[in-house]
Amino acid sequence: MADLSNENGVFPKDSHEGTKDTEDTKLNENEIGRVIIDTAIDLHRKLGPGLLESVYEVILIKYLFQKGLYVQRQVSIPIKFEGELFDEGFRVDIFVQGKVIIELKSIEKVTNAHKKQLLTYLKLTDIKVGYLLNFGTELMKNGIFRIINCEIN
Fold first, then answer.
1. DSSP state, 19?
2. Measuring CA to CA, which of 3, 46, 82, 136 is 20 to 30 A from 52?
3. What does the domain layout of the chain look like in residue ranges?
């Protein structure tokens, strides 16, 4: 499993790193997912579609943190290839509770390539569940995709 710890990614910067050791870490992926979906729908209702991904990212992170979840943003994941570690792997938009990856988009239409991208992230990190959230849709419910890594034992 990849080490997803990243001091630069913890929100907010000064604090509550202890939150990851609270009762909230006992939430399973489905419970975390419900919080993510409810929060994303609420955020989309308030802001509407079409803003930059970064706007949705920082506000979603703030809301999830306020709900007691341990959240990291823009976590760099190195890639190990042929025995060598490359730091230039990829970045996870949002990592929640050490259990769920969120990939954000603000586009007109999600394609299979976007879903495959998230599935690859899940496989490379041995994470079971991820959410692709597209804030570019008219209705947020049409922009929510739950992706499962079936290769987890």
1. G
2. 3
3. 51-153
**Cα 38 to chain centroid, rounded:** 14
d(CA 104, CA 149): 18
Task: Give residue-wise pLDDT tens across range 115-139.
Answer: 999 999 999 888 999 999 999 999 9
In angstroms, the CA 20 to CA 26 distance is 10
pLDDT digits (tens, 9 = 90+) for 15-57: 333 344 444 468 999 999 999 999 999 999 999 998 999 999 9
Q: Of the CATH numbers 1.10.260.40, 3.30.465.10, 3.40.50.300, 3.90.320.10, which one belongs to the domain with range 51-153?
A: 3.90.320.10
